[in-house]
Sequence to fold (274 residues):
Amino acid sequence: MDNRPIGFFDSGLGGLTCIPYLMRELPEEKIIYFGDTARTPYGSKATRTIRSFSMEIADFLVKSDVKMIVIACNTVSATCVYDLQQKFPQTPIIGIIEPTARYVGTYRGVKDKVGVIGTKVTITSHAYKDMIHMYNEKLDIVETPCPAFVPLIEEGIIDNEIMDLTIKYYMDSFVNDNDLDAIVLGCTHYPLIKKNIERLYPHLDIINPSDIVVGRIREVLDDRDGFASGSDFTNVFYASDLSENFINMIDKIFKEEETKVKFLNFDLEREISR
Ligand code: DGL
Fold:
């Protein structure tokens, strides 16, 4: 048993999309989450910049005594998961792409055509395509970047026509010309527009890494006898800039557990409890 929290991080609020799945599958687990809202988006930045931001955050989480770190960001997972693992060998660190690639490679049939959408960095790295092919080299994988999704989602522009038009702008010809059967939401912000994508492309099977990664968390904890039980740790959400949308998103996720969440503006060290 290990009652220390699990550390999660993302460039912003996207990584929060993993949390409801964690709570459903492993309800005893507690978390420390860091969203780098002051420096988001990462998906159009240079790899060395993403690496240096990620090192700072992982260092902070390790010092906070987390039992493992989940990189709840595809962009970071595509570029520096091995650097982070090397720098912090004492803490298990998992990315979100590898478990998803294993799932796709194992469960999709060879006749399926699978699309991957993500940030520019994730897509140009071909991390999804390469890793899926490690599990099933015959699968037909196509990829396309959708760089305007993250800024719109961070602004809370989700349930409206602007988002729908933006989705159609990036995805219409990608989905239709490639005759896709399934799509991987290769950015942890995208589950927040899953309903829009389902409505616009009802025939697509949607593969959600924010859900799939919980299976890998379970494996890591199981290997180490590291599950929590009866922990009284309070979940903590850090944001490098405490935006209203970040707070609203946490409110949505934790609507039934209001007293168990507190926020801390990381730079200002200003704690806001409720
Ligand atoms: N949630 C991050 C990802 O999964 C968003 C990247 C960004 O900040 O551009 O890729």
